[in-house]
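Box 3.1. Reading complex inputs
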Amino acid sequence: MPRTTTQNPAAPRPRTWVRLVRAAALFVPLAVLVAAVNVTVDPASLFQRGYEYRAAQIVAGGQNAAHLKNMDDRAFQQNCAALLPAAPGTLVLGSSRCLQVTARIAGDPTLFNAGVTNGDLRDSISLYMLYRELGKRPRRVILMADYCTFNPAKLDNRAYTEGYAAFARRTGTQEMRTTPSREKWYQLFSPTYFQSALAYLESGTGAASAPLPTDEYEAETDMRRADGSYSYNLGFRSQTAAQRMENGWVTAWNIEGNMGAYDEDSPVLRAQFELFVREMLADGTEVTLLLPPINPYMYDLMAADGRYAKQLALEGYFRAFAQENGLAAVGSYDARALGLTEDDFYDALHCSMEATARYWAAEAAP
Amino acid sequence: MSLFTGRFFAFLALVCAAYYLAPRRWQNALLLLAGLAYAAAAGPWTVGVLCAQIAVAYAAGRGLERLAGRARKALLAAGTALLLGELLTFKYADLLTGRATALGQLAVLGISFYTLMAVGYLADVYRGTVPAEHSLLRFALFLSFFPQLSSGPIGRAGELLPQFGAPRAFDYDRFARGTTNMLWGYFKKCVLADGLGLAVDPVFHEPAAFSGPALVLAAALFSLQLYLDFSGYTDIARGMGQVFGIELRQNFAHPFGAHSFAALWGRWHMSLSQWFRDYVYIPLGGSRRGTVRMCAATMAVFALSGLWHRAGWIFLWWGVLNGVCNLLDKCTAPARARLAARVPGYAGSRWQVLWQRVWVFTVFSLCFILFRVGENAGATAADCLYYYRHLFTGWDVLLAPGRLVAQLRAMSIGRKFLAYMGVSALVYNGVEHAAIRAGTDAAGWLRARRPAARVALYYLLALLILCFGQLGTSSFIYFQF
């Protein structure tokens, strides 16, 4: 016979609210366990302070930082700006799509790549202003001019906007704002983050809780090189185009998933882009526009969609703007025009380092 | 609003706190507001459609109370036509017109469920088994009570309206039973059903990449997945109902323990099968007007049930196939019983029970291949036939361990999967069997444990959900109906 609870009918039962509080209290250890694992393992580095600083120390010290987990790219770049011993000769500004531009590719050993995940124009302006404030203004800036540069729906709520806000005030333009992310606090008790932490532990990549300095140019793990460029982990970068298709890195994301929500281009962002470039030129900084190529598969999807076709047409605007202001423009949204194929991409949007080197060399050739 | 998000739990906690802290005369209004907010989260049109169904059913119910004779019958027909018309418009427009229509593309949360509740209400008022509801608030709540809004159980006016009419004080034991039901439901859904889904989905998405044994295994696992998914949802819905002091219908009674195919359907999605029994099967003559009429009524019920699940020809054929199996089961029962009696020691033995269960499960799983293939976007009859044909091919894979392991890996079946699914299955079976022996349900059995054992079991379930539940991707299979 299964044993069941027995109650003494004569014994007074505690008040309802006492029972409720007592029952709820029983689950507090579970919540504490989730929070403790989330904070301790912290696969996306949401809670650990100093992780970005340690990575920046390695990079600014001239070594590559391997074994990286997700981190706050904005905090990392601010630390790099402060820790780099001298002004970089070339500063690359943009999103993850410019992170394969290395010092070797651009032919400047003092290049530093300050691209950040999903970086938008506000990040680029703020980082440039930071370098300038720190007395480390670069001689040349490679500025990413992406298809979504003026799309307000693509502004990221994690953006570093301090310098941008001052720039907007100074130029009398409207400050484009996004609500700051509160993701960190949502994730403290998040069961899905807890599962990510367990998977992270299980994968073994969590064995090192800090970034490791290395001299390897390409590591098995995610790595920021000393020039700020990014080397994806071996698994991600060694997939064939067919495997990427199979894994859904190109196909399973529909066009909106890949391209982000679409709004009409913002005249404010366009004006700020132009003012920003002119301010850099006035500073004596040489500016090169980088038009990052799109996976031909995705390019065709975009070209067939009225909304995104308009965004692709931005390439014409950027080229005209470059010509008008005497800027160099490297790359093209149309990868085929650069001689690239689907095999040259890590996914829908990110061109491999080898392919970046190829088209860069071809464009630089006389 | 997904039942797996922090937003939903915050919504539930907020509604619950307001519900018990507010004066009791506001309780129904609060629940109605919560129901409308829950519907609005699925799209503003959902609220519009729901309100229209409420208005039609309420007005028709009041009219039926006043009218008599042919006018009454005409009003019943008109009310039912309006209710079903709205369902047809939003759910079947694409099927009927043969093209994608704007209305057909709107996914209206729960319309299949609350439309049946509204039609059932009108039929009950017409028959005089329940009085017409005078309070619009109570009636609106009857159709929009959010724990059952998205996927049932399909409630009856005679059971729910009196509950909404009575004041409901906080009852700790009922509340605790409700939360225990929810915990058990989340365990079934997130750990077991979604875990099985990892093995099932790759095979049904690309059957050509797998051999016969994998197709058979996936078909069997899909039956279990569907049961655990929907019964898990039902436990959560019933648990939420109990949290608010409302008892909702039971939907499942251990269907895979049934000894016949017909009996299985009597234990599967009971609120739907009982609805069809009371409002379609019996009015069509049921089993009282001869075999031919019974067969016709059975086929009508299963065909309608197929179409109710989803607007698509494959689902119609799925319903018809189940109807045929049901009739074959009923018609051959006496002959099978005579045959069993001729085998010494077989009739009534464990072997007979085991054989019957295996046979019923096999037929059920074969029927549900249509259902699962039909869920794939753009599936055709050829896809279904392909699956059936290839059940019997490629069995030589059993002689090639390397290929077999590769196929199992492609189904996500590895050591980790087997370990956590094994532990979870042991927990599930242990609790369910103990509950059956104790004559209660899982939540009732868990609540009756000594405090230390109870808390240990709660922790075990919570940890299994936390560690192995598919929390980021969960969506109930029945939500789409």
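In summary: The mean pLDDT of chain B is 91.
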